[in-house]
Write a structure and sequence with these properties.
Elements lengths: L2 H8 L3 H13 L6 H13 L5 H26 L7 H6 L2 H14 L1 H7 L6 H14 L3
Helix pairs in contact: 2-3, 2-4, 4-8, 6-8
Amino acid sequence: MAMDQTTSLIQPFPYLGIFLLLILGTLGLPFPEDTTLILGGFLMVRNVIQFFPALSVIYPTLLMTDFLLYWIGKRYGRRVVEHKIFHRIVSLNRLLKLEGKFRKWGIWVVFFGRHLLGVRAQIFLPPGLTLKLAPH
């Protein structure tokens, strides 16, 4: 499909489309966040969307999806890694390593991990799991 055809498919509801792609990517569907952000940049260059309206959709959606991943970890605990969708995102072995890093470095793991390609989902699940396991 040519880029002009793709743009014509997105053009009627571009902000809603970006929002949905970010949400669906968080839920494990094959829409990586980074690709969606690059698409947003492409749409800005092509004057399909404007910078500030796009920013007002993208940034809150990113925060919401990060919180969603944290909440899933907090709500469901270690059962998350047994679920087929989330098992693909983070294995039990990887989860144990990340929990150790989170306990050692705390918020810094989350801050720096948020900016690393391909590990965002793995970064936000362990804090929720760790805090769930902590005694009250």
